[in-house]
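Lab meeting prep.
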Amino acid sequence: MDSLARDLPLLTDLAFIGGQFRPAADGARFEVRNPATGAVLAHVADCGASDAEAAIVAAEAAFQSWRKVTAAERGKVLRRWGELMLAHQDDLALLLTREQGKPLSEARGEVAYAASFLTWFAEEARRAYGEVVPSHRADAEIVVLKEPVGVVAAITPWNFPYAMITRKVGPALAAGCSIIIKPAEDTPLCALALARLGVEAGVPAGVVNVLPTLKAPQAVGPLMASPVVRKLSFTGSTATGKLLMRQSADTVKRISLELGGNAPLIVFADADIDVAVRGTIASKFRNTGQTCVCANRILVEDAIYDRYAEALARAVAAMKVGNGEEDGVAQGPLINAGGYAKVARHVEDALAKGGTAITGGKPHDKGGLFFEPTVLTGATTDWALASEETFGPVAGLFRFHSEDEAISLANASETGLSAYFFTNDLKRAWRVARALEAGMVGINEGVISTEVAPFGGVKQSGLGREGSRHGLEEYLETKYVLFGGLAG
């Protein structure tokens, strides 16, 4: 373990399989770096096919016993896990900031958000209700049971490395499933820290397994090919989701896919501009613009376009950029060179097509992976950011003239994860909320994620829902049982 990481008490650089922290079978390791400084945090076990096979064996054995544990007992384990996360909130937050780059204040918020899924599903474990159905025969009774799906493969992203795991682990364990987690290569340390706390919380060996890897095809391939793995839950890009969907076909896995977004944020002329600006900042610039529900296309009614643009630019220009461990930092670095290059390409494309950067618009003078928070005016539908997720701190402002035009522009996307709009007209709020093609809609609000509500999209933004009571159903099978010969 590297000396730079010695003040991170929950840091672990080994894979977690069958209740044991262990190196990769072939001894391979890969570097994990701090995106703000470039410093190496750890050299982590680089799992391959044999490690995945070992995890499948461990998870299948654990499932057979874990499914028999009462819902109340499973709930106690999850609740204790969530409590431990909050007890170690500062340690987890510091690890997250160093590994992923987000400001410490946001990192602490993510830890609390992630813990909420464990607490929520600890309670939902006892609500996997079946039903008794009125029978079609006098001598029979019909019973519907809910049973755990089985071994789950979970592939999670780097932008919320705690929350995207607990949002899957919580319902999986509550339902009685075991799980194998393949965390993002940029943020495996957060996943392994969660595993350490899971052990302390009493998660039995093999119920949770973590496979860090730099060679995803080798590690994921056995999971997708195995008939033992009955479900896939994936959060990531639409392109990768489609590939995994195809790979799931041969074994007919249950799948939950939370894929890309291209969220519209509409500001109508009757909106409170200050409220709209605050909501836009929260939606667009949280986590340096690196969230799947970020506002990606900001649509502003012509009558207030200039006033809104000026107000937004002032707020964006005031945000402090830097290492997330520094006081007052609101914008950290991009996650890696690929993410940085995409942001730069989108800005260059916009400026080349007549856009104007009224604040930002270039690499930050801090260098490295830092980019200036940017507001671009004059956006048109031929800009790259109109059809691609930027995943960075760039707000492109489109102009519209009517409600119908705004809805048409908002829905002109293959994806439909989230959407936002600002208005003080109650009738319009209902009309537009129903008209938007998105799985989640925020009205006069830029942050809508919560453990108590269903999270997921429509169109090419994926399948299934996470969080809420609906999230538990994703990990349950429905079994129909007929009791015959009951007459007499």
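Slide two material, second protein:
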Amino acid sequence: MQCQMPRLEDHCSCTSKHLSGAKWFVYKAEEMMSLITSMLSQAYGSLHDVRTANLIRRGLVLFTVGAILALVLNLLQIQRNVTLFPEEVMTTLFSSAWWIPPCCGTGAAVVGLLYPCLDSHLGEPHKFKREWASVMRCIAVFVGINHASVKLDIDNTVQLSLTLAALSLGLWWTFDRSRSGFGLGITTAFLATVISQVLVYNGVYQYTSPDFLYVRSWLPCIFFSGGVTVGNIGRQLAMGGVEKLHND
């Protein structure tokens, strides 16, 4: 009986087959990883685009709401002779200063976008009365507070300021009750009052019978309630955007 030794060519052929199989497996694995990476990149890019578009959409809505509210409330104050503008200004659009609605709209967009951002940063999502009916009631109360600031016939400015402060705190307690909302409302009131002070000091416009340096002492109460109102609108818009992203 003759022993048949394995030939060298057969051994090399088997080895090359194993190597080619390993290379094919590595190639397929790399192709699969590349496909998965591409899909994840596209999904992240799509999600980022959706979030950016949603942020821009919310900002435009807040800007429009702020500009409309500023125009209406400013006309109310001019009608009640609370705010006085130069004669040349009164001949502009809607008998008001043209720069007031854009400035207030920009401020409303910034404040309205900051409220949900701060809620997310603090880890305290705002869940108190999260529906559009509550937001509309908050807007109505805010307009009522502004109307009361020029309608109430109170000679004592301290009493008027305390009354409006109580109404503003009541608006926050009724429609917000969050620490972030209270803090941002205070910050908004302080910054807006300082800006008004600077504008009045430079003669851009003036208030009749100012009792706190150049402005009315109850002005911070109006800005506080306005910040809370715009913040509630921004939160409601953000909640709608989050639900849309979740559904997608």
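Talking points for slide two:
The chain has seven helices and two strands.
The longest strand covers residues 83-84.
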